[in-house]
## 1
Amino acid sequence: MIYVPGTRQQLSMIAIVTNKGYAHWQIIAGNFDSDRLIEFLEQLIKDARRKVFLILNNLKMHHSKPVKIWLENNKGKIEYFDLPATVQN
């Protein structure tokens, strides 16, 4: 549980669920940005100890230049897939 004072405060959460059903998550004050996403992914591949297959949901940050460069530089450790922009019925 995270307790915050009665004043308005923005919290953001990033989470992944593994194919075995385990969750990895992080909550921060403020917004996630490219640097925070990269830090999260670095910890994820460190904890996984094997290649990570990541499905991204097309959040604008996922397509930022720093994230794309980081993913390219770490393609031996992490492979990513983008969900379609819209879901077809």
Note: Residues 34-48 form the longest helix (15 residues).
## 2
Amino acid sequence: YASVNSCVGSNIVLLTQAFRRKFVIPDFEIFTSHIDSLHETAKKTSGGKVADYIPQLAKFSPDLWGVSLCTVDGQRHSIGDTKVPFCLQSCVKPLKYAIAINDLGTEYVHQYVGKEPSGLRFNKLFLNEEDKPHNPMVNAGAIVVTSLIKSERESGDRNFAIGYYLKEKKCFPEGSDMTSILDFYFQLCSIEVTCESGSVMAATLANGGICPITGERVLSPEAVRNTLSLMHSCGMYDFSGQFAFHVGLPSKSGVSGGILLVVPNVMGIMCWSPPLDKLGNSVKGIQFCHDLVSLFNFHNYDNLRHFAKKLDPRREGGEVRVKSVINLLFAAYTGDVSALRRFALSAMDMEQRDYDSRAALHVAAAEGHVEVIRFLLEACKVSPFPKDRWGNTPLDEAIHFGHHDVVSILQEYQNNYKHPEDSNNGKGKHSQENIDSMV
């Protein structure tokens, strides 16, 4: 017992979550099979060029491609070349900004750097109207942030030029040594990671600043919130607006081919593939991110009610079905035709039953909601004959509760109803047309 207790004691919460399937992604095996498929699809994406202006980066094979993820509960999965070390490069920018905010506070840091997208190249010699770098995700802003917290150097002439420009404009804190600041900046950009370790960094941001592996608080909630906000608006170079529009998740790319992707409160992902597009982002990484939010409802503005065709890995299959049935029957109970119309348009099964085998038509008939009855029969083409646990049909319910208008409608539809086997061809198409006509 003592030996078991010593092994389990410190991990009892983790083990309890595992046995109860209470992790943020309950069906992790199914989820990771989808991730593997997305990785394989992106692997076929061609194009791009490995960055060659930094000699160490030019040595990487363009065929390298890896994806690692780590959830806020510490669930981990990797596929591809995830153990190959590479430099963080610009992927370090959100991390050092978060450290600066954590140590010095938002107000102090933003005395020296702005919060707006620049609309310019990341290494442009340009400041905003207040003579500050536009944001911490461009080189000028990252150098200033480095000054606040204090291999690549030989190819860093552009950054030295930016440094002198910032010094001339008095962007650094008083008494700062520009050369030592740039040395530190280059060291931070040269930090070596793998996809696996990078995914834990991303997961720490997804987890509000607490490392999901150690349970240690690394960053304050304020630092994480500010960092994710800027990653969302400025993290992907000149592609930031497009990425925010199509993917809708905080991210940061680097010229080494990495993309640090955060799904808040769910997981962090590190993608890595050296070939870059003309804007400096990993070609395969961008494809993977697009495919990820096409399959799962991770986009910040995916609405769970209207994107029913997207998968939600945060729920177990049974939980999704239970909530679906509850929402459907409650809308029928309250006579909420608008809600029923939304459900129908999002491809919900309008004939699904509860534990007593009662369908929405049963509930609407018992409550006497004529508009709901008409919508279900005319637009959704549900069967007027479903029987519940006790053998009662919606017509029986309407008769029992004295809803004569509903009785008339149901009798008419029962007399004219064609069974599915008689009209299977084109049923889905006609149902959709009927629903569209009632929008």
Note: The domain at 317-418 is CATH 1.25.40.20 (Serine Threonine Protein Phosphatase 5, Tetratricopeptide repeat).
## 3
Amino acid sequence: MFKLLIFSIFDKAISYQEKIMSKNNDANRKKNKKKIDQKKRKIQNAEAERKARLKQIREDFNAREADNEL
């Protein structure tokens, strides 16, 4: 009976600890996902800016070349 009681208390303590851990894991997962999403957005924005800059440079170059031909 005593062993069963100790096991029962210990089992509940483990169960409680697992609940705490799972909450922390969920919170950490959400926080990490948010950071990853922010990094992805930052990379995508930088890529879009780079493409826009290259497009502008290309247009300026083509305009200068057209002016030089005249």
Note: Residues 49 and 66 are 26 Å apart (CA to CA).
## 4
Amino acid sequence: MDIHITYHFGLCYRAPGKLDLAAETFKTAAEETRAHNMSKSLLHALCLYKQGCIEFQAGRVVEARSFFQDSLDIREVLKTADCERVRAMHGLARVLDQVAVTDEEKMKQVELFSKAQAIRKNLQGDEYTPEGHIEEAYDGLVDGQFR
């Protein structure tokens, strides 16, 4: 099956809350990207990001942290659009908000959250609301930029 189709199946499974099936599908898509030498692609970063979202939603923040960090690292290497990078920044900031122990981790959380908020504010303009820091808002930034 095409990797993009596998990824979109994951989205379809996640929408009605079939998290285990969605997680397995995103994992399969990520494995397929690695098998096709695409481990530094935006598609691979998207799979990792979605896996991080599911892990975070399930309360597995340590696992989520790894997925979000790896996704952000790929996006930064690729120099992706702000709307793409901000999703991974926000996810990692949410995780660090719960697991940060050292002062360095706490500072990184504040920095990531501040950057994410500034980017979202810039992209949303008049539609920006401070309480809108949810996954859907960040996903919507991508949809809005690429229409």
Note: The domain at 45-145 is CATH 1.25.40 (Serine Threonine Protein Phosphatase 5, Tetratricopeptide repeat).
